[in-house]
Write a structure and sequence with these properties.
The chain is about 75% helix and about 0% strand. The chain has about 325 residues and is mainly alpha-helical. It has one domain: Farnesyl Diphosphate Synthase, CATH 1.10.600.10. The longest helix is centred in the middle third of the chain and has 28 residues.
Length: about 325
């Protein structure tokens, strides 16, 4: 864990001033005569987020040689979009914890969470216009649309044990990876690099975004609740078909499948049933399989950046990619 923290500290040090500017921008754009907006927004934004998406946008801009300042506002935009989706997700999932703290909906209620999420989406588009780039506006607008589609697709897949790896990965791409890919691609668009480099950064983002969600889904079954920041087995409680369970279910016996079906369809998830599923996932290699798939994605992601010359920014992006599969929360 110390090694992971050291790696992240070195990445953050490289873009320290820019990240500070992004943080200051959060406060400016959350300013409103409606105090509840700033209260809820600041609560969520200051609750231990990794800022992975802003860091990727800043580093991608630097990798491509961008020398302006519009990347600061746009780094804030991708974090606002991400935060808005978290506010809405916690309402949909009836979550009580977010990053180890009480979720906004458990503090202010579902109505406030949904409406502040709407504010963040609206503010994001207002700030985007300031980029003076129709391409970036369209890219982030299309990305936001796809995020919503991913959430709906995940809802459709709820408690459906017929969901296979392909269907699962489509949800991961649409609800998580697509915004991380957009963050990387925006840096390339700002700098005006050629199509090959722009596409390479987008593919890099898609791969590490997918790996990030794979690790998140694995950690849901094995991480300590206090460290991970949400209840262990929350995905199972919500009936979400994630890769550890999909893989274990594909290897399970008829009797084991019947028991998993009973647990998934039950209205309440008790400790004994959670232990059963966690043990089954471990025995069938669901966690190892998921982590291996994440590692494969990270190696592919690094390969895409070979079109760029070696630099501090490229090395930092490699370090962020490695962080995705070594983190514990």
């Amino acid at each position: 864990m110390r090694k992971v923290k050291k790696v992240m500290d070195s990445v953050i040090a490289l873009i320290k001033d820019e990240m500070q500017a992004v943080e200051e921008q959060f406060s400016r754009h959350l300013a409103s005569d409606v105090k509840l907006i700033s209260q809820v927004g600041q609560y969520v934004l200051s609750s231990g987020g990794k800022r992975l998406r802003p860091m990727l946008l800043l580093l991608s801009s630097r990798l491509c040689g961008y020398n302006g300042d519009k990347h600061i506002d746009l780094a804030g935009v991708v974090e606002f979009i991400h935060t808005a989706t978290l506010l809405h997700d916690d309402v949909v999932d009836s979550a009580s914890l977010r990053r180890g703290n009480r979720s906004a909906n458990s503090v202010w209620g579902n109505q406030a969470s949904v409406l502040v999420g709407d504010f963040l989406f609206a503010k994001s588009f207002s700030v985007m216009v300031g980029s003076d780039s129709l391409r970036i506006l369209k890219l982030l607008a299309d990305t936001t649309t796809q995020l919503a589609e991913g959430e709906i697709l995940q809802l459709i897949n709820t408690c459906d044990l017929d969901v296979d790896e392909k269907r699962y990965l489509q949800v991961v791409r649409d609800k998580t990876a697509i915004l991380i890919a957009a963050a990387c691609q925006v840096g390339a668009v700002l700098a005006g690099v050629d199509d090959e480099k722009e596409q390479a950064l987008r593919e890099f983002g898609l791969e590490i975004g997918t790996a990030f969600q794979l690790m998140d889904d694995a950690l849901d079954y094995v991480a300590d609740q206090i460290e991970f920041g949400k209840e262990k087995g929350h995905d199972l409680f919500e009936g979400k078909m994630t890769l550890p369970l999909i893989h274990a279910y594909s290897k399970a016996s008829v009797e084991e499948r019947s028991e998993v079906l009973r647990i998934v369809e039950a209205e309440e998830l008790n400790a004994a049933d959670l232990d059963y599923v966690c043990k089954l996932i471990e025995e069938k290699g669901g966690i190892v399989y998921t982590r291996d798939k994440a590692l494969e994605r990270i190696e592919r992601a690094k390969g895409y950046l070979q079109v760029f010359s070696d630099s501090e920014a490229r090395r930092a992006l490699f370090q962020l990619a490695d962080y995705v599969v070594t983190r514990s929360k």
